Amino acid sequence: MLETGKFCYFIDETMYVDDLNLWRPAIVVENEDGYNPVDYTWKGDFKTVQKMVNIINERMGISEERAAEIVRSSMFPQTRKAA
Rounded to 5 degrees, what are φ and ψ at 17? Predict the structure, then answer.
């Protein structure tokens, strides 16, 4: 089970599925490498889908700023060890 406040929904321009205006969002977990695509798609243009992501995150108590922190942590997780 994911801990509240430690994950968020995420979408970017690379998550376009096909020519039917479908997008596959992902769940990003704080300090875990990468993201986890969900098994469903959302329809709309990118701006609309981004708004959907922001609304869902806000309903979970995750601000846009907090979501950006979570996403950054997945790019450079604290669990990585220096080479």
Answer: -95, -50
